[in-house]
C-alpha cells in the first residue's frame, strides 16, 4: 500500500506527459492560429525545396517541410535590421495538405517563379499548407493568372501578396504603421480615382481583429487620405503575414475572386470535373490534340473528356461507355451519328471489335488519340494499360498517336502513398513498353490514389 502511494506522483506525471504529448489535455498547447511558423523560410544559400506531405504527420509540433539551408532566427533578426540575406517571397499560396506536393510541381513547371519552400499550419481539419514563391515577373500579374487558372480553382484557398521591398516588422504595431503608410501612398497616387476599400488579409487569422483596430487608428490620424476597411466590396488588399519573429506586409489590387479562391467552380461549361484532368494532363505534358484528329475515349460517361476532345477540334470522338453520356451526340434525321461525337454504348472490348471491323473495311483510318479514364473495379484498376491492349484499343491507333490514361488505385484506409506508388511502378513500365515520351502526373483534379499517364504510341 505504502509503495502504491509513493508511486502515485510518478504515475500521475507520466500520464500527464502522455496526455499533453498527444494533445488530449486542452489549453496546455498554444492554439495553432496564434503559433507563428517555427522556421523562417528564406535567406542563406538558395533553398532546395524538400517536400513531405505525409497524411499522418502531426501538425504544428514541428515544421513538416524544410528548405535546405533554412536560415537561423539570428539571420532573421539581421534581416529585420535591414541586412538582406536572401530572396523573400512575394506570393504565398495556401492549399489543403492533400495538394501541396502537386501544387509545388504545378507551379514549378508552369509559372515563372522560384519555389522557396512550403510550411504547415493549423491542426486537424483546419490544417493548411503554405507555398512560398518568389516571382520572376510582376507578382500582381502572376496573382491574376493564378486567380483565373481553372486547374487551381479547387485547390488554392488564398493568395497572400507580400511587398518584397517593404522592411519586415517586429510587431503588430509596426505592421499597422507600415500598412497605413503603404495605403496612404496608393490613395495619394494621381491616377487613383476611387478611394481604396481595403480588405485585410492576416496570417495568423487570430491577429486580424487587433490588426484591423490598430490599422484603423493609424488611418484615422490627421492628414491621412480617405481609405475604408471592409471585408467585402474591396478594391485593395492589405496583407500581413507572420514568419518566425517577423511580419511581412504588402498592399495589392483585389482581383475578381478577392483572394478567396477555394471551391470556386472554374468558369466555362465543363460537363464534369474530370474535364480539367484531361486539359491539365495535356498542358503539363506539352501535348495537344490537332484539329481533325480521330479520338477514342474509353470510359467516357458522363462525357467531360469527350467534351474536351470535341472542343479541341477532333473530327470525331468515339465515346465508349455502357453508361449514358450526358453530352448529347449529334444525330442525323435517320438516327445516324453525325458531327463530332459518336457514343458507342458498349464495353471497350465490344467497341474495339466494331471499330476494327470498320478499319478492315476501309471505312475508318487509324486513330490519332486514345484516352481512358475507366475504373475497372477493385484490384484491377491499375491494370488498365493491359486492359487497353487486351481489349484491342491500342491496335486501333496509328504509330505516334497520343495516349492519355488514368491509373486508379483503391482508396484503402491505412494504405500508404508509398505502397500506392510501388503498385504503380510495374504499370508505368507496361505503358513505357507501348509508348514513348511517357510522363506521369499527379494532377490537381486527380484523387489521392490516382495518377495520369501521357505518352505516344511507339513506332511513330
Ligand atoms: C470516372 S468515369 C469516366 C469519366 C469521364 N472521363 C468524364 O470525363 O466524364 C469511368 C467510366 O468508365 C466506364 N467503364 C468502366 N469499365 C469500362 C469498360 N470496360 N468499357 C467501357 N467503359 C467502362 C464506367 O461506366 C464509367 O462511366
UniProtKB/TrEMBL annotation:
<dbReference type="Pfam" id="PF01728">
    <property type="entry name" value="FtsJ"/>
</dbReference>
<protein>
    <recommendedName>
        <fullName>Ribosomal RNA methyltransferase FtsJ domain-containing protein</fullName>
    </recommendedName>
</protein>
<dbReference type="GO" id="GO:0008168">
    <property type="term" value="F:methyltransferase activity"/>
</dbReference>
<dbReference type="GO" id="GO:0032259">
    <property type="term" value="P:methylation"/>
</dbReference>
<feature type="signal peptide">
    <location>
        <begin position="1"/>
        <end position="27"/>
    </location>
</feature>
<feature type="domain" description="Ribosomal RNA methyltransferase FtsJ">
    <location>
        <begin position="272"/>
        <end position="403"/>
    </location>
</feature>
<dbReference type="InterPro" id="IPR029063">
    <property type="entry name" value="SAM-dependent_MTases_sf"/>
</dbReference>
<keyword id="KW-0732">Signal</keyword>
<dbReference type="InterPro" id="IPR002877">
    <property type="entry name" value="RNA_MeTrfase_FtsJ_dom"/>
</dbReference>
Amino acid at each position: 500500500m505504502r509503495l502504491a502511494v509513493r508511486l502515485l506522483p510518478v504515475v500521475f506525471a507520466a500520464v500527464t506527459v502522455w496526455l499533453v504529448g498527444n494533445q488530449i489535455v486542452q489549453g496546455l498547447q498554444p492554439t495553432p492560429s496564434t503559433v507563428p511558423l517555427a522556421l523562417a523560410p528564406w535567406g542563406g544559400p538558395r533553398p532546395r525545396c524538400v517536400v513531405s506531405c505525409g497524411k499522418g504527420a502531426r501538425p504544428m509540433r514541428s515544421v513538416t517541410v524544410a528548405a535546405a539551408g533554412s536560415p537561423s532566427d539570428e539571420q532573421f533578426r539581421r534581416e529585420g535590421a535591414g541586412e538582406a540575406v536572401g530572396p523573400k517571397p512575394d506570393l504565398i499560396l495556401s492549399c489543403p495538405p492533400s495538394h501541396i506536393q502537386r501544387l509545388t510541381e504545378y507551379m514549378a513547371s508552369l509559372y515563372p517563379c522560384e519555389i522557396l519552400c512550403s510550411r504547415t499550419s493549423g491542426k486537424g481539419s483546419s490544417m493548411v499548407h503554405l507555398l512560398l514563391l518568389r516571382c520572376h515577373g510582376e507578382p500582381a500579374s502572376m496573382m491574376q493568372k493564378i486567380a483565373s487558372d481553372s486547374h487551381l480553382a479547387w485547390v488554392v484557398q488564398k493568395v497572400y501578396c507580400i511587398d518584397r521591398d517593404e522592411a519586415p516588422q517586429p510587431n503588430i504595431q509596426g505592421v499597422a504603421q507600415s500598412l497605413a503608410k503603404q495605403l496612404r501612398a496608393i490613395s495619394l497616387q494621381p491616377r487613383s480615382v476611387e478611394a481604396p476599400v481595403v480588405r485585410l488579409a492576416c496570417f495568423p487569422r487570430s491577429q486580424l481583429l487587433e490588426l484591423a483596430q490598430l490599422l484603423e487608428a493609424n488611418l484615422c490620424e490627421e492628414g491621412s487620405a480617405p481609405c475604408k476597411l471592409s471585408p467585402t466590396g474591396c478594391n485593395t488588399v492589405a496583407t500581413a503575414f507572420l514568419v518566425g519573429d517577423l511580419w511581412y506586409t504588402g498592399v495589392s489590387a483585389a482581383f475578381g475572386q478577392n483572394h478567396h479562391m477555394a471551391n470556386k467552380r472554374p468558369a466555362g461549361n465543363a460537363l464534369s470535373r474530370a474535364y480539367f484532368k484531361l486539359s491539365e494532363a495535356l498542358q503539363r505534358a506539352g501535348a495537344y490534340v490537332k484539329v481533325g484528329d480521330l479520338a477514342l475515349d474509353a470510359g467516357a460517361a458522363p462525357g467531360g473528356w469527350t467534351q474536351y476532345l470535341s472542343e479541341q477540334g477532333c473530327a470525331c470522338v468515339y465515346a465508349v461507355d455502357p453508361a449514358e453520356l450526358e453530352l448529347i451526340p449529334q444525330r442525323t434525321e435517320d438516327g445516324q451519328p453525325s458531327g463530332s461525337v459518336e457514343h458507342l454504348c458498349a464495353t471497350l472490348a465490344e467497341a474495339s471489335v466494331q471499330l476494327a471491323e470498320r478499319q478492315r473495311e476501309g471505312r475508318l483510318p487509324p486513330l490519332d488519340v486514345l484516352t481512358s479514364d475507366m475504373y475497372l473495379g477493385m484490384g484491377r484498376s491499375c491494370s488498365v494499360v493491359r486492359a487497353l491492349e487486351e481489349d484491342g484499343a491500342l491496335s486501333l491507333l496509328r504509330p505516334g498517336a497520343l495516349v492519355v490514361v488514368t491509373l486508379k488505385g483503391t482508396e484503402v484506409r491505412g494504405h500508404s502513398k508509398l505502397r500506392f506508388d510501388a503498385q504503380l511502378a510495374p504499370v508505368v513500365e507496361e505503358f513505357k513498353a507501348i509508348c514513348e515520351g511517357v510522363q506521369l502526373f499527379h494532377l490537381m483534379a486527380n484523387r489521392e490514389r490516382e495518377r495520369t499517364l501521357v505518352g505516344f504510341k511507339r513506332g511513330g
